[in-house]
């Protein structure tokens, strides 16, 4: 998880949210904005 955080958050400035409930499940949400087409 530390490597994922380093790549997603520190290197690319994106975000990660983690939601976990004991005995249930863990959900990871990685937010990566879509790119817009470059104007030529």
Describe the overall structure:
There is one protein chain. This protein has a two-stranded antiparallel ribbon with strand order 1-2. It is elongated, with a radius of gyration of 14 Å. It has one domain. It has one helix and two strands, in the order H-E-E. By secondary structure, it is of the alpha+beta class. The N and C termini lie far apart (39 Å). The model has no long low-confidence stretch (mean pLDDT 84). The longest helix has 10 residues.
Q: Please give the largest β-sheet.
A: 2 strands, antiparallel
Report the helical percentage.
25-40%
Order of secondary-structure elements: HEE
Distance between the termini: 39 Å
| Count of the domains | 1
The radius of gyration is 14 Å
User: Uncertain regions: pLDDT < 50 for 5+ in a row?
Assistant: none
* Shape descriptor: elongated
């Amino acid at each position: 998880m530390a490597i994922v955080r380093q790549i997603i958050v520190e290197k690319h400035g994106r975000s990660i949210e983690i939601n976990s409930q004991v005995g249930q499940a863990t959900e990871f949400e990685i937010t990566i904005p879509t790119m817009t087409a470059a104007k030529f």
